[in-house]
Write the structure tokens for this entry.
Amino acid sequence: MLDAKIPSGPLDDKWTEYKGHCKLVNPANKRKLEVIIVGTGLAGASAAAALGELGYKVKAFCFQDSPRRAHSIAAQGGINAAKNYQNDGDSVFRLFYDTIKGGDYRAREANVHRLAEVSANIIDQCVAQGVPFAREYGGLLSNRSFGGTQVQRTFYAAGQTGQQLLIGAYQALERQIALGNVQMYARHEMLEIVKIDGKARGIIARNLVNGELERHFGHAVLLCTGGYGNVFYLSTNAMGSNTTAIWKAHRKGAAFANPCFTQIHPTCIPVSGDHQSKLTLMSESLRNDGRIWVPKKKDDQRKAIDIPEEERDYYLERRYPAFGNLVPRDVASRAAKERCDEGYGVGTSKQAVYLDFADAIVRYGKIEAGKEGKSNMSMEEIIVLGKEVVKEKYGNLFDMYEKITGENPYELPMRIYPAVHYTMGGLWVNYELQTTIPGLYTLGEANFSDHGANRLGASALMQGLADGYFVIPYTLGNSLADEIYNKAIETSHPAFEAAEKEVSDRINQLMNIKGKQTVESFHKRLGKIIWDKCGMARNKEGLQQAIQEIQALKKEFWSDVRIPGSINEMNPELDKANRVADFIELGELMCVDALNRNESCGGHFREEFQTEDGEALRDDANYMYVAAWESKSAHEWNLIKEPLVYDVVKPSQRSYK
Amino acid sequence: MEHYNMNLTVKVWRQKNSKDKGGFQSYPVKDISSEMSFLEMIDVLNEQLIRDGEDPIAFDHDCREGICGQCSMYINGKPHGAWKANTTCQLHMRAFKDGETVTIEPWRAGAFPVIKDLMVDRSAFDRIIQAGGYISVNTGNAVDGNALPINKDKADASFAAAMCIGCGACVAACKNSSAMLFLSAKVAHLALLPQGEPERKSRVLNMVAQMDKEGFGACTNTGACEATCPKEISISNIARLNQEYLVASLTADK
Ligand SMILES: Cc1cc2nc3c(=O)[nH]c(=O)nc-3n(C[C@H](O)[C@H](O)[C@H](O)COP(=O)(O)OP(=O)(O)OC[C@H]3O[C@@H](n4cnc5c(N)ncnc54)[C@H](O)[C@@H]3O)c2cc1C
Ligand code: SF4
Ligand code: FES
């Protein structure tokens, strides 16, 4: 069994108590302690800045050409915080409760409560850094709604919230670089962790510009390397997002928790053809104003505007009157799939539903007309005013939609379909964010800790920054306090040598296959297996097949992949091959996990386990645990369970009706 | 949208590494759908090159949705191609016609040396930010987010400047390779907010000094940067920068 090291005492006091009693490192000693941070997205950049400010000697790594380009930059809709600025009944408890419920009772209470507690500090910190959040005319911060909640607690900067938060963290990080507290290694990819006497003590990284392998020592190593949604090939993640860092750590002994918990986001631009290289999200914030519908008639060939109101099925409003279009993502995605599978889908592929802003445009137009005191405006004039309002709220998303599809969403409803978006699973961490390898920590999307089986919108940015700015500065100190007598270990140590050799052997092996098939073609095939059999709906038979198919694919990959170019140069195909090799292994574990979990919960929907009206049917008696997998051999894993104990919230069948 | 297929000739800059001289190579590509993105067209070409035993074209990209600022190509003589307010990754093939020749080059600027093919080194931008593109506030020092109301118009203007994605197209478009639009966007973002006030003068002086050190050229107000910028960063920011700089150099205690 795993010990999550959750502090004792009442839930409300745990974090305060922890902070009051954790060990500290004095400033002089901090300067002697080296910390490696892999990844400089929101989680990594905030951690690097905060630890640099404290005086630790930090080395930070990212594979992009600058930390400002991490995948976090693409987050659109917003970030949650329990500020209750709207006076609509929000509180730390409510944010905590919504997150636990949204996660379908598969997250750890203590972590989620801490997240809710520090959420307000994040907003304050970002405002102080100059993050230009949206404001009201009175000069105060503005909020919007996101799915799975009934309050307005989401802070945003138009549809570019992730960009603005990351720029804030990036600037804080650059300041520490200028002060000499952080050394930045861009265009570097971590390919192995180094363990000495059971502890994580460094990494092997590849300089992507010249292909050289480098050894770096750290008293502790933090992995902040983001999610693994690209295991599906097509996802809303950036092209480079990968699992390599956490997968290497997993193979070196770190347990991987709930790998099958992946989030399929309901509102993305549908696939247009085989050439598709990635999918684009249309932010959940659009569900504040957009109404989702399909025609009531199967295979309706009419254009959307020709279908009269009474022949439209607003299926979310029909099925979930209390939350309507703002049900959580897993629920909205499955409902869209259900309609399309039944033959009600729209567009040429029939794999799409409408997201319609016509009503919102009229509603906002009328409000504007009212403000201007004009009661006799024509509908055309009202629509013009309404479009202005919608443009201010979502302009960049509408532009993005038009660039991709060539259609104008101010005139026609958007066509959308669910797509892979986020991974709730990740390396298992305890309350201190430490993995099962001492000295190895995981922050942000790369860990599994806070979102259970389904993440609520606007909560990933919150978690990444909570981990980096407000959690790790305390929890890392608690264990580094014991390290102050340990000098930095020379990277000539045999453990470094052995790890480097492992990496170079593997790279040589890959380059020497000289087969016929491209890396991309393998990645596509892997993605299809996982999407079909371990995607929005799963069943035992399909998962068993998928495991066979993935194992066969792995063999084929290692005997027939073709990687052009050479090792000691900039070689993006080699970088990709390293990542795809790891995705293949992870894909297998995802299916193993999905097969083990004989229940449906959140984003994990096993067709065998559903209620009469098609909702996820949990089995709390048998599966109320975190499934943490320990690597035994290439295709074998040990399951270790962390039982989930609910002291405060009473798990029940989730209802959004 | 109606879509169609096309055959093209892609004339692209190939350069093995920073020391190589480099030169153009032409490749035919077939059956490109008008629904593809520009980078998906290059993906198709690269798959073809790999199968033919050649080296694929190296280029920078990540988000493929116009926000990370990583993609950076000169397409038919224009940074990010012909569409207005657009990044390379958002350009779609419906912008091209069957039979066309498409010319692709890396950013050309002394301060952005080529790494390989279409990839350049833009770390100079990071060093400009290091010189002062931040507000010095350590974690945990903040007051309540609503303690300081900020005029909405100012906040919106600050946001408009903060939208810069650091792609470098402004530099690539400028005949002097000036980085003034990029720099001015950051100075404006922070100077428009009360939080940016305490470091206002030192920030602009230090950032401009770093820009000069990196070897970017002077601004002669041609406006090419604004016309190219995918985020429509306004050239009025440069006027603001000049004013900030002037005031700072006259009054800052050095
Ligand atoms: C399109 C989109 C929109 C979203 N919108 C929202 C939203 O509105 N609200 C919300 O809360 N969440 C949103 N999310 C989710 C959220 O953006 C992410 O979960 C979050 O940003 C992840 O941050 P991170 O710091 O954990 O990882 P990332 O930002 O992915 O950063 C990973 C870092 O690790 C580095 N890295 C990875 N592997 C290696 C390696 N092997 N070696 C070296 N470096 C490595 C990368 O270079 C990068 O710096 C959205 C996600 C997507 C895809
Ligand atoms: S100002 Fe515009 S063109 Fe220049 S770096 Fe910023 S976004 Fe790119
Ligand atoms: S790839 Fe990110 S902006 Fe083009």
The radius of gyration of chain B is 21 Å. Chain B touches chain A through 80 residues (CB under 8 Å). The mean pLDDT of chain B is 96. Residues 123-251 of chain B form a domain with the Fumarate Reductase Iron-sulfur Protein; Chain B, domain 2 fold (CATH 1.10.1060.10).
